[in-house]
Amino acid sequence: MKRLLALLLSGGLLVELLSLDYTKAVGSYAYYVAHWKEVGIPNLVTAILADWRAYDSLGEATLLFAAVTGFYLLLGRRKI
Amino acid sequence: MKMSLVVRTTTKLIAPFLVTYGAYLTIYGYESPGGGFQAGVLFAVSVILLMTAYGYRRTKKHFPLRTVQLVESASALWVVGIALIGLAFGAFFLNFLRPYIPGGTVMTFNIGVALKVGTSFVLVFYVLSRWVDRD
Fold it and tell me: Residue B43 pLDDT > 90, yes or no?
């Protein structure tokens, strides 16, 4: 019963994913494709990740810095 | 703490290739798949492999804790500095280096993020292993 349910779910997901249409550009995708040339980078994924969404990487770097600071403050003492 | 001869030899063979691949991902990340975070994790993994194979004491001689801390803070300042210099040219994270360097700020930003992520993970492992054998 459980296996049948999983099979049905996967089949429905497969049909849904195969019926997606990526030929027409709508929403933010249209904006990215239209203004791709302004960034001047051949890789669209990198252009999105490191130019338009560079805030995201900056936040990730801040998160790592906070994690390291926490580790050092909590466990960095030489002898207790 | 020292692992067996097989582990030590394999680590010695693999670590240079890891560092080379990390440098490739950092520098060519703007026109091929890759980026700063993955490259930084590769750098960190090469040092962590050395640490698990040879022990914390021997790794610390070649990558001192003070240097790792210094590189981490300097690359954090580098990343924030690139963002703020872009602000001076008109927008936050503006690609103001594009006419001069291939990839512009994306490549320099990737270099900063790679150093930052790599040294962060190494520092976390250093602090943890120092805490484990503190007594």
Answer: yes
**Nearest CA distance, A77 vs chain B (angstrom):** 8
pTM metric for this prediction: 0.82
Rg of chain A taking only CA atoms, in angstroms = 22
For A53, the closest chain B residue by CA position comes to: B93
Phi and psi angles of residue B85, each rounded to the nearest 5 degrees, phi first: -65, -35
Say if B134 is an interface residue toward chain A (CB within 8 Å): yes
- Is B30 within 8 Å of A41 (Cβ atoms)? yes
Chain B, window 97-116: residues with a beta carbon less than 8 angstroms from a chain A beta carbon: 98, 103-106, 109-110, 112-113, 116
Question: Complex ipTM, two decimals?
Answer: 0.81
Optimal mutation site among B89, B109, B122, B132, interface A, most CBs of chain A within 10 A: B109
pLDDT at residue A63, rounded to an integer: 92
Q: Which residue has the tokens 């240079």?
A: B16
- Sequence ranges of the domains in chain A: 25-80
d(CA A20, CA B38) in angstroms, rounded, equals 30
User: Could you read off the pLDDT of B60-111 as tens digits, one per residue?
Assistant: 898 998 999 999 999 999 999 988 888 888 777 777 777 787 777 888 888 9
Q: Nearest 5 degrees, angle CA B100-CA B102-CA B103?
A: 110
Put simply, whether A60 touches B (Cβ < 8 Å) is yes
Chain B's closest residue to A66, CA to CA, is: B120
Q: Is the pLDDT of residue B42 over 90?
A: yes
